[in-house]
């Protein structure tokens, strides 16, 4: 074998899986089709400390562009609630480089500019065909994004509700003083069907605007254009310069499906594990179990299922509660959202974890408190799942 484990995709989850498995003595090769770290730019570039604490890692200021104090969630009528908690706007390229260095220091062989073409089972392992040759391994970890081509090749369905991926367009913008505020702003309502629009200040004259939409196709540019005009009106801006745009998908409520098969593990966005910190934590679990499988010479599905068990114990309830909240939000009218926000306006709500996923948890608590009868729908979700 050329390696014990091949990790496909240098997402934060994939990098953590490679790092942890390498640190336990496995020979790991990490492949990514990007030519270099941070190319192209990824739209996921913010998180809260509460979210990151789940990883057990320390936030390093070397990759932080701006430290923030929390977030406002804002209703169509303008009423809002505030979530206090340390938050960060990231230089995503430096962030990725920081943790890729950790993976390399642990012994992982990291290779960029290599596309995986096929994965074939052989006796005792796999042959991974790439744009630069074939590599043999005992176990494959898949972390190649929400539209995982490799998972499809393996005949696996790692995302349960693909129709509920939130497709996004995020733009870096420039205007006088636009990056100075100390709080993120998340706007909910029917202008952003199924989720939200965002304003994330990153210091000085720079910020990002984002649009996240569910069940309206993958191209959300029209929704974004409308949001940009609304934002200019809200902030009293005559002109906003767009520096760059990036697109992507957030499987915030798509729910993990198949995570393991014989010799295969799926992690991160490929497995609907939304949020940078949550994905990294899942990657740590995945890498630890993968290393145990190699050391014991057992890469069967039943052995690898330990990874699923660990993920379930840490996150399953939260993810289903988040899905309940988002589905309730998707079906609410602007008037109903306004009414809900009025109940909570002025309350200081602490952030347990500031990922988009946990914002959904906070919204779910608001929905349940404002409308106790909806708990019946919540219970039904768990009976069926």
Structural key phrases:
single chain, 385 residues, alpha/beta, FAD/NAD(P)-binding domain, D-Amino Acid Oxidase, Chain A, domain 2, eight-stranded mixed sheet, disordered C terminus
Brief sketch in words of this structure:
This protein has three domains: 175 residues, FAD/NAD(P)-binding domain; 85 residues, D-Amino Acid Oxidase, Chain A, domain 2; 51 residues, no CATH class.
3D architecture notes:
The structure is a single chain. The protein has 385 residues and is an alpha/beta fold. It has 3 domains: 3-43 and 93-160 and 254-319, FAD/NAD(P)-binding domain (3-Layer(bba) Sandwich); 166-250, D-Amino Acid Oxidase, subunit A, domain 2 (D-Amino Acid Oxidase, Chain A, domain 2), CATH 3.30.9; 332-382, no CATH class. Helix content is 36%, strand content 29%. The chain contains 10 helices and 17 strands. The chain has helices spanning 12-23, 49-52, 92-105, 149-153, 221-235, 276-296, 301-331, 334-344, 356-370, 375-384; strands at 3-8, 28-32, 46-48, 64-74, 80-90, 109-112, 116-122, 125-130, 133-142, 166-174, 183-188, 196-201, 206-213, 241-250, 260-261, 264-266, 348-350. The strands form 2 sheets. Strands 3, 4, 5, 10, 11, 12, 13, 14 and 17 form a 9-stranded mixed sheet that branches. Strands 1, 2, 6, 7, 8, 9, 15 and 16 form an 8-stranded mixed sheet that branches. Residues 351-357 and 372-385 have low confidence and may be disordered. It comes from Methanolobus vulcani. It holds the Pfam family Pyr_redox_3. InterPro entries: FAD/NAD-bd_sf (IPR036188), Geranylgeranyl_reductase (IPR050407). This is NAD(P)/FAD-dependent oxidoreductase.
